[in-house]
Amino acid sequence: xxxxxxxxxxxxxxxxxxxxxxxxxxxxxxxxxxxxxxxxxxxxxxxxxxxxxxxxxxxxxxxxxxxxxxxxxxxxxxxxxxxxxxxxxxxxxxxxxxxxxxxxxxxxx
Amino acid sequence: xxxxxxxxxxxxxxxxxxxxxxxxxxxxxxxxxxxxxxxxxxxxxxxxxxxxxxxxxxxxxxxxxxxxxxxxxxxxxxxxxxxxxxxxxxxxxxxxxxxxxxxxxxxxxxxxxxxxxxxxxxxxx
Lengths: 109, 125
Known about the structure:
The complex is a heterodimer. Chain A has no helices and 10 strands. By secondary structure, chain A is mainly β. The termini of chain B are far apart. In chain B, the strands form 2 sheets. In chain B, strands 2, 4, 5, 6, 9, 10 and 11 form a 7-stranded mixed beta sheet that branches. Chain B is mostly beta strands. The chains are: A mainly beta, B mainly beta. The interface between A and B is medium-sized, with 25 and 28 residues.
C-alpha cells in the first residue's frame, strides 16, 4: 500500500501570501495518478488538481500542482479568504485503489 | 451538470447494517466509476469502495469483508451496505464519481469530480 504523507499539518498564512503544500508518497508513483482536493468546513471535498498539475473545471489559476516521483506540491499563488480550508492529496493505484494523505489545514494567520 | 443525492439511516446500533444510496442526476452511471468515501469526525478521508455500471466492484481491503456494493442502472442509483457496524464506523459518508479514461493503452485518472453532500452516520448503543 502506498502511503501519502502531507506536510505541514497546519499552515498559518495571511491573505495575499503564497502557500506551498507538500505530499510525499512512500514509493515512486506516476504523476498521472495524483490529485488534490480542497475541503471547507461542513462541505464535501472539491477536486482541484488531477494528473498532478491539471486544474479541474472552474478552478482558479492561482492554484497549481507540480511534482514527480515521490514529491508533489500544491501551490496557491495569492491566498484569498475562501482558500483557507483543509487540502488532501490522493493517489489512484492498487489495493486499495485510492489512498488519501492525512490533510493540511490552511488557516488564517 | 451531474449531481449526486445520497440518503440513508443516520443512527445505527452496534452490529446493525449501514445502508446508503446515491442517485445520479443530470447524467448516467455509464462510463464512470462510483465511489464511497468516509470521514470520521475530525479526521481524514478513507476510500471504501467503488462500482461501475456493469456491477464490477473494488473495495478497500480493510473493509472488504463487510462491504457490499450494488448498482441499479434503471434508476441511476448505486448503494453501499456495511455489515456489523461499530462505533469506529461513525463518520460522514460521501458518494463520488471517479473519472477514469482509457488513453493509449493506459488508464488516466481525472479525479473524483462530483461529490454528494455527505450523510452523517452515528453508531451508538
